[in-house]
Amino acid sequence: MLLIGDIGGTRTTLALVPGDSDCRHSLSEKTFSSAEYSSLGAIIAEFLNEVDERSAQAIFGVAGPVMEGRAVLTNLPWVVDQREIEKDFGFSSVQLLNDLEAVACAVPFLLRSELLTINEGSAAGTGNMAVVAPGTGLGEAFLTWDGERYQVHPSEGGHADFAPRTAEEMELLAYLMDRFDHVSYERVCSGPGIAAIYSYLRQSGYAPEPDWLAERCRGIEDPTPIIVGAALDDDHRCDLCIKALDMFVSILGAEAGNIALKVMATGGVYLGGGIPPRITSFFQKDLFMESFLRKGRYSGFLEKIPVRIILNTKAPLLGAIYWGRMKKNSEDAFAKKFQNRNK
After folding, report:
1. Which CATH number fits domain 2-105+313-338: 3.40.50.1100, 3.40.800.20, 2.60.40.10, 3.30.420.40?
2. How far is CA 72 from the centre of its chain?
3. In whole angstroms, what is the distance from residue 290 CA to residue 270 CA?
4. At residue 249, does pLDDT exceed 50?
5. Where are the domains positioned within the chain?
6. Residue 1 burial (CB < 10 Å; 0-12/13-18/19+)?
7. pLDDT of 106-148, one tens digit each?
8. What pLDDT score does 63 carry?
9. Is the pTM here over 0.70, yes or no?
10. Which among 153, 154, 182, 187 has most CB atoms closer than 10 A?
C-alpha cells in the first residue's frame, strides 16, 4: 500500500492505493480543508485513524518549494518535513515533491478524455511541455525529453513580476501596488487574484455591483467562489463578475504564452489547477488564445503549440505515484509501458 497526497493551500487530498495501481483505483480517499488543521501530520493522523489499511511508504506533492526533504508552504502556515513524518508515523520512506512537479509528472500519462483542447496545434513528438496551474496560487513547471523519458522541472515562475499589456491592466497593477509590496502573476492569476480583479473593477466604476451579490459577499473572507458562480449564472447576469473572469483568462493567456516561449513548449501547454476546469466556457472564448498568441513575430510559432485543460482532478495524485515509481525503477520500465502522450 502507498499513501499519496496532494497538499494544497485550500484543500489536502490523501489516498491509499495498491502499490501496483494508480489513484484512478484508490482504496480509500478523502479531501480535507487545509486551513482547518495545524499541520499535515494532523490530517495524516485523522485519515489513518479512519481507514483500515496501513502504508509503509508515502509520497506527497506540496504547494511550495521542496529543499532537502523540507517544504515551507507558500499559502499555508505549514512546514512539512519528510523526516519528521517518517518518525511520527513509522513510514519506511516519505518523499516530498512540489505539487506542480507532481501535476507535470502526470501529463504524459493523461488520457484524451481527461483533457479539454483549447488549441489543437501540432505537437512535436518529444517537444518540451509546460504546465500552468491557477488555484489558491499560480503553479508552473515544465518537462523536457532526455532521450528516453520526460524529466520534470519544478518552477516558482508564478511569483515573477506581473507585466501589464494594456491601459486597463496598468490601472490594475497600480491598484494592486497600493496593497502589496510585490505584484506577481500569482497576485492576479489565482483564486485570490480573481477577487482582486473584481475589487479593482468595482472601485473603477466599470459596472455597478448588484445588491444581491453585495449581500452574498458581505462578511465572506474569500468571495472568489461567489464571483465565479455569478459569472457562470445565466439567470442572474453580473457584468462585474463576467469582466473579472474575462480579465483573469486574458492575463493567464499572456502568461501561458510567456512560459511557452521561455521553455520552447512545442509539446504543448497544459492548464492545471482548480480554476480552469470550473470555467471552461471562458477559455473557449477568444480571449485566452488572443493573449497567448499576442507575441509579435512569434505568434505563428505559438499557433502550432497545443493548449489543453487538465480535467482530471486527481492529476497531482497520479503524478506523485508515477514520480515515485520512476525514482524507484532506474530502468524506467513502468514509464515505457504506460506513457501514452495523451493518445
Report:
1. 3.30.420.40
2. 17
3. 17
4. yes
5. 2-105+313-338, 111-311
6. middle
7. 999 999 999 999 999 999 889 999 999 999 999 999 999 999 8
8. 87
9. yes
10. 187
